[in-house]
Design brief:
Layout (H helix, E strand, L loop, with lengths): L1 E12 L6 E12 L3 E5 L6 H9 L5 E7 L2 E2 L7 H6 E4 L13 H11 L5 H11 L16 H13 L5 E5 L7 H18 L2 E6 L2 H7 L2 E6 L2 E7 H5 L6 H10 L5
Parallel strand pairs: 3-8, 3-9, 6-7, 7-8
Antiparallel strand pairs: 1-2, 1-4, 4-5, 9-10
Helix pairs in contact: 3-4, 5-6
Length: about 250
């Protein structure tokens, strides 16, 4: 089964006279259980695709299908968010500073219409490797890695099939990045999740994803397997430049 289909997706900002094309004719699909990466420099349009999918940008055309169901406009219902959830780049900005971890998770579970909330909060915290001692802490009492684990637990609360990962480790210390990536890998296996992951970091995408699309100036210039990436055999010149930069000394 195909989890996501993106076909001829165009996303823009502004009106006719000052319209800026952020994504131009993007096409790719993600199979159920697959991890697919979007990679490119800042401003290439990769995160904009995630925002169009979740309804955070209203102006788009083309086709977006989630598990066979076509989306339209920017409105997304509860059923969509039971299927698709997003983990944002900055775990501190995405958590309410005056809400404890318990409040964050309990309110999310309530919004999804789930019961046994106390038990579910405990299970979520255990699943992301935090445990009960973090339950009543506030975001400022947590490290960056711990905050991102809470954000991942919140995304998992509705038991989604698909996780959208927008640079999930780029705001973290290097020493913590691998721990969070390994957690995501374990959760994907445990919960049979599908990943659509955005990053500017080719090695991260190569480690986390089976296939990837390289974006430049709003366009997908190449779709390749991670094996092709690891072998250093991309076909597009821009992909070759990105790969060369990622393995350059002191990078």
């Amino acid at each position: 089964m195909t989890a996501l289909v993106i076909n001829d997706l165009n996303v823009w900002f502004g009106l006719v006279h000052d319209r800026v094309a952020a994504v131009k004719g993007a096409c790719f699909s993600v199979e159920q259980g697959e991890s697919f990466g979007l990679v490119g420099e800042s401003g290439s349009g990769k995160s904009t695709i995630l925002r169009a999918l979740t309804g955070l940008v209203p102006q788009w055309s083309g086709t977006i299908e989630v598990e066979g169901e076509a989306l339209s406009g920017a409105k997304r219902d509860r059923r969509f968010f039971r299927t698709v959830q997003m983990v944002f780049q900055d775990p501190y900005a995405s958590l309410h500073p005056r809400h404890t971890v318990d409040q964050v998770l309990s309110e999310t579970l309530h919004l999804h219409g789930l019961n046994n909330i106390d038990k579910r909060v405990t299970e979520l915290l255990n699943d992301v490797g935090l445990g009960q001692r973090f339950r009543f802490r506030y975001p400022h009492q947590l490290s960056g890695g711990q905050r991102q684990r809470v954000a991942i637990a919140r995304a998992l609360a509705g038991e989604p099939d698909i996780l959208l990962l927008d640079e999930p480790t780029s705001a973290l210390d290097v020493s913590v990045q691998a721990e969070v990536l390994n957690l995501l890998t374990d959760l994907r296996t445990l919960r049979r999740l599908t990943f659509l992951m955005v990053s500017h970091d080719l090695p991260v995408i190569g480690h986390m994803c089976e296939r990837l699309a390289v974006m430049r100036n709003g366009e997908i210039v190449e779709v390749m397997s991670s094996e092709t990436l690891r072998l250093g055999n991309p076909s597009h010149e821009y992909s070759k430049q990105l790969l060369s930069a990622s393995v350059a000394p002191n990078q």
